[in-house]
Specification:
It contains seven helices and six strands; from the N terminus they run H-E-E-H-H-E-H-E-H-E-E-H-H. The protein is of the alpha/beta class and 206 residues long.
């Protein structure tokens, strides 16, 4: 908490004129979402600055472009809360709501924020598919959704749930994955299209 506010006061030089959000970041998307994407935590100069998940940083650029290509977003960019972005069929959230130092949330932060994620997902009754972006989100979702025989995390891993819903895992959209080619645009698109199919959403028009 103190660190997110410190970042908001000291700022990065490129954003020195911005009014940082520097508070817990809420989820964002379609209240009737059938697909929920679950990340890690707000980035210090991304969501912690703009107040919207995956907005204003390189990870968000990669993610929202993919959501646009796969029919979940009305535009390929996400730069500010008032930029006109809207999601259809999808909701984006994170297990940790405050930007952590070095972008590495602790188990204590995860556990403290857990009730918020529980309540948030419970308020989205149409959800059919959960897409964790990275191993941290995968582990949280498996615990939250009662997965007893947890498979090893991997990109594209699909976990059927007892109630007919699914988890479809993806590598995180962080620069260490996207800049190195560990996660490519076709790889993320494939996961999102699989999630779309499992959620019984209309196919994307070509």
């Amino acid at each position: 908490m103190a660190w997110r506010e410190q970042v908001g006061r000291e700022k990065r030089a490129a954003f020195r004129d911005d009014d940082y959000w520097a508070r817990p970041v809420p989820g964002f998307g379609d209240p009737a979402a059938r697909v929920a994407l679950v990340g890690l935590a707000p980035a210090a100069h991304g969501a912690n600055r703009t107040g919207r998940m995956f907005t204003g940083d390189r990870s968000g650029e990669f993610l929202y472009a993919a959501l646009w290509r796969t029919g979940f977003a009305n535009q390929p960019t996400s730069v500010a809360r008032d930029d006109g972005l809207a999601l259809t069929g999808a909701w984006i959230t994170a297990p940790v709501r405050c930007a952590p130092p070095a972008n590495k949330p602790t188990p204590a932060e995860r556990d403290q924020c857990r009730p918020f994620l529980d309540r948030e997902l419970a308020l989205l009754p149409s959800l059919r598919v959960f897409v964790p972006l990275g191993q941290f989100g995968f582990q949280v979702l498996c615990d939250l959704l009662g997965v007893r025989l947890r498979p090893r995390f991997g990109h594209g891993v699909v976990v059927p749930l007892a109630d007919g819903r699914h988890i479809v895992a993806s590598f995180h959209v962080s620069q260490q994955n996207t800049f190195t080619g560990r996660l490519t645009e076709p790889m993320l698109d494939e996961v999102l299209l699989r999630a779309r199919s499992l959620a019984a959403l209309p196919p994307v028009e070509s």
